[in-house]
Design brief:
heterodimer, A: mainly alpha, 11 helices, elongated, B: mainly alpha, 2 domains
């Protein structure tokens, strides 16, 4: 772990990724202290200072009701990071357990589990999340449910393919011979060998969950106002292009930078730890 | 039986199982939601009688299994029910909006293959040099933003600041062109109207590129990593020892075997564009499925939602079958596996 972190800091690109992600996480955690107008996170209105281009102290400009855009972007990061963390904490264990079971047990279990996985994978990810989200009420919790529902199959796929090849390895056969239980073999013998790939994928996915969640709210199927959200900020601002460009450009770049940061780290991890494809 | 026919048959069978599963899944999601769809469709001012009549018409009083039975039997008659939003058959709505979306996705997919694969090859051939580093950084940026962000940025730069491309729509105002199939690039050529063809092409480039950017990035990154792996194989060293040119080695020995594993994933990315098209269409006011899809979702128009998702998933499966077949054609190990001895 320590060694991995050391290697990450040595490559300029992964170092950049680490710096970006650290800044974003710290900003989100300490949003109350670093933003100039923390009260603008709610339904505040200031018509004396609305729709202004970037100027001091509103470095990203102000939105259509006069709220500081920088403040809202930082708080939107907080919402996005929490959402991504919750989605992965729920989706990864589900996907991993199903992948292990399908890969190790084989036979009918494998056929049924993998076909169910295929079904989820054959609805384009965004469309599946959209339909779930639209049919439930668009709230933060339901957004998490919708994204989780589309995310677990990718971990099932990943763990399944690793388990399939590990199943025939000597250490698994040895464990079988001395009478270890199936659960023990799956979770104590095979799972540790999947961990590097899972960690790599989770790092990349942290960015991609943020990306998908922002896409949902861009379509009006995500977090509802006044909660700040990067996707809905872009959607609202897009109506006022090109004159009020700051309304879309800053939230849009905010998504890009966050996802880019996680991708840089994930890419480097893939080279160090191997795995994921 | 020839290998290709057998693969096709097997894939079709699996896809059918998956498609039935998709229909059950989406049907189940649509029916377990809270609230009465009939009440939502008619609005809060409708009388209880009107709601009861609609409930009866939609078979909402039967059990969910019976409802699914009705749905499947209608489906076999090419009937996806009436959209409560447009009051027209869902199949007709989809037939109206789908061509625009497919045209956009098709042009995007073409860009992904024609730009993504060469970029990946270039990056792998010059691995470790500044060419490689630049391509890797640019492609990573490409995959790091949702397509609506690229759509907004490209629109701002290339339609407003430097007005090279139109801001919205599929044809210039007042072109008066009457479409035949709804695929404008095809229709304009079929009518021999080259001016309208150029106009349609000019309109599709920017949205298609915004949609393609993440796919281009994925394809380039994938081809690069597969090809770099191939470059480490002993037979490449052998080819170098023979004194073959770098160009020949790249083309014949490194690229071909790297293409096969890349194609499958590129197929998946292409299919994902069907979903992402929703995001780009709404920025460029592209008259495709997006506006319809979002509208019916927000109105909880069950028939229309189930129909739209089902059609998109069917497209997705068809694309994947085509890719699988392509892979088997490209891969000599499959193509030649059952040749008579």
């Amino acid at each position: 772990m320590k060694k991995t972190l050391l290697i990450l800091t040595r490559n300029p690109l992964s170092l950049l990724g680490l710096i970006l992600v650290t800044i974003i996480v710290l900003a989100a955690v300490f949003a109350d202290f670093i933003t100039p107008f923390p009260e603008h996170v709610g339904a505040v209105v200031d018509f004396t200072n609305f729709n202004q281009p970037p100027h001091w102290p509103n470095i990203f400009g102000t939105d259509l009701v006069g709220r500081d855009l920088f403040t809202r972007v930082v708080y939107a990061y907080r919402v996005s990071l929490i959402l991504a963390a919750v989605v992965l904490i729920i989706a990864v264990p589900i996907g991993v357990a199903i992948g292990l079971a399908a890969g190790y047990l084989g036979g009918w279990t494998e056929y049924v589990l993998m076909r169910i996985t295929d079904i989820f994978l054959s609805i384009p990810p965004l469309v599946l999340a959209m339909s779930i989200m639209g049919l439930l009420e668009p709230t933060l919790t339901n957004g998490m449910i919708a994204v989780t529902a589309m995310w677990w199959p990718w971990y099932t796929r990943l763990v399944y393919s690793i388990t399939r090849s590990e199943r025939e390895e000597g250490y698994v056969l040895a464990a079988e011979v001395i009478g270890a239980s199936k659960l023990h073999i799956m979770f104590r013998e095979i799972l540790p060998n999947c961990v590097p790939s899972i960690v790599t994928k989770m790092t990349l996915d942290f960015g991609f969950v943020i990306l998908i969640a922002s896409s949902l709210s861009f379509l009006g199927l995500g977090v509802q106002p006044p909660t700040p959200d990067l996707g809905s900020m872009v959607a609202d601002g897009a109506k006022y292009l090109p004159d009020s460009w700051w309304l879309t450009v800053f939230p849009g770049l905010a998504i890009l930078i966050a996802v880019f940061g996680f991708n840089l780290i994930g890419d480097a991890l893939r080279e160090i730890l191997g795995g994921d494809q | 039986m020839p290998a290709l026919v057998r693969i096709l048959a097997k894939r079709l069978a699996t896809s059918l199982v998956v498609l039935i599963g998709v229909s059950i899944l989406i049907f189940a999601i649509a029916r377990i939601i809270p609230g009465d769809p009939a009440r939502i469709a008619l609005g809060p001012n409708a009388t209880a009688d009107a709601v009861a009549v609609l409930r009866d018409k939609l078979h909402l009083n039967d059990s969910i299994v019976v409802q699914y039975g009705y749905f499947v039997s209608d489906l076999f008659h090419g009937d996806l029910g009436i959209s409560l939003y447009t009051n027209r058959p869902v199949t007709r709505d989809i037939a109206d909006f789908l061509p625009a979306t497919l045209e956009l996705v098709f042009v995007s997919g073409l860009m992904m293959v024609l730009l993504g694969i060469p970029l990946g090859v270039l990056s792998a051939r010059y691995r470790g040099t500044w060419i490689d580093h630049t391509i890797r950084l640019v492609t990573l940026l490409g995959v790091s933003a949702p397509s609506f962000v690229w759509a907004v940025i490209l629109m701002l730069l290339l339609a407003y600041f430097v007005p090279l491309f139109p801001v919205a729509g599929r044809l210039s105002d007042g072109s008066g062109f009457q479409p035949i199939t709804g695929f404008l690039l095809f229709d304009t050529l079929a009518r021999g109207n080259l001016h309208a063809f150029a106009d349609a092409l000019w309109h599709v480039i920017l949205p298609a590129f915004a949609l393609a950017l993440s796919g281009i990035g994925q394809a380039a990154r994938l081809v690069r990593s597969n090809m770099v792996e191939t470059y480490n194989k002993p037979y490449i060293e052998m080819a170098e020892a023979y004194g073959f040119s770098a160009r020949r080695i790249a083309r014949r020995y490194a690229f071909r075997p790297s293409l096969i594993p890349s194609l499958t994933i590129i197929g998946l990315d292409f299919a994902a564009m069907l979903g992402n098209a929703f995001l780009v269409e709404s920025v460029y006011a592209w008259p495709g499925l997006s506006k319809y899809g979002v509208a019916v979702i927000l109105r909880k128009d069950l028939n229309a939602i189930v129909g739209t998702v089902l059609i998109i998933s069917a497209m997705f499966l068809i694309v994947n079958i085509i890719v699988d077949l392509l892979v088997s054609v490209v891969n000599p190990r499959i193509r030649l596996s059952e040749r008579p001895a």
